[in-house]
């Protein structure tokens, strides 16, 4: 099997200035992780929604650390936060691919983009629910003491 880092991992010269071009030497895995990190950095720099998700994630982590929650609560919070970030990354990649492959307006593509955005919304609502269930009891106990 030929080790191909995948589509999109070879930046074209016409991409905007947020592009990070990792070219590490070493194994194919190192290159794959570098491309993934470059994609994450690009998304955080170029997508406004990350400026909502990331501060909330930092606040949740800070509250969990301050409350010194149990390991299972940490697991729930990490999974919920990771799901929101992953959904946002998938939504971002779909939006970018559509802009390149079909720049003209098409109602069907609009519906597909709406569905991808809805996936982020559903994951975010789920994460808020997990956060309330996970952090609510320790917060209540702290307020009662």
UniProtKB/TrEMBL annotation:
Cofactor annotation comment: Mn(2+), Zn(2+), Cd(2+) and Co(2+) support activity to lesser extents.
Active site: 88
Amino acid composition bias (Low complexity), ranges on this chain: 1-17
Gene Ontology terms for molecular function: ATP binding; di-trans, poly-cis-undecaprenol kinase activity; metal ion binding
Annotated Gene Ontology cellular component terms: plasma membrane
UniProt-annotated stretches for the region Disordered: 1-24
Binding-site positions, a divalent metal cation: 95
Protein's membrane topology: Multi-pass membrane protein
EC class name: transferase
Keyword line: ATP-binding, Cell membrane, Kinase, Lipid biosynthesis, Lipid metabolism, Magnesium, Membrane, Metal-binding, Nucleotide-binding, Phospholipid biosynthesis, Phospholipid metabolism, Transferase, Transmembrane, Transmembrane helix
Family classification: Belongs to the bacterial diacylglycerol kinase family.
Protein name: Undecaprenol kinase
Organism: Rubripirellula lacrimiformis
């Amino acid at each position: 099997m030929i080790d191909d880092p995948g589509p999109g991992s070879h930046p074209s010269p016409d991409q905007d200035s947020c592009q990070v071009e990792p070219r590490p030497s070493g194994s194919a895995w190192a290159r794959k992780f570098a491309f993934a990190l470059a994609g994450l950095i690009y998304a955080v720099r170029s997508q406004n929604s990350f400026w909502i998700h990331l501060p909330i994630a930092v606040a949740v982590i800070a509250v969990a650390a301050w409350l010194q929650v149990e390991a299972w609560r940490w697991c729930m919070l990490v999974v919920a936060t990771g799901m929101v970030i992953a959904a946002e990354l998938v939504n971002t990649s779909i939006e970018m691919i559509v802009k390149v492959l079909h720049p003209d307006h098409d109602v069907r593509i609009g519906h597909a983009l709406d569905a991808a955005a809805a996936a982020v919304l559903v994951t975010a609502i789920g994460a808020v629910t997990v956060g309330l269930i996970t952090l609510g009891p320790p917060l209540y106990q702290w307020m009662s003491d």
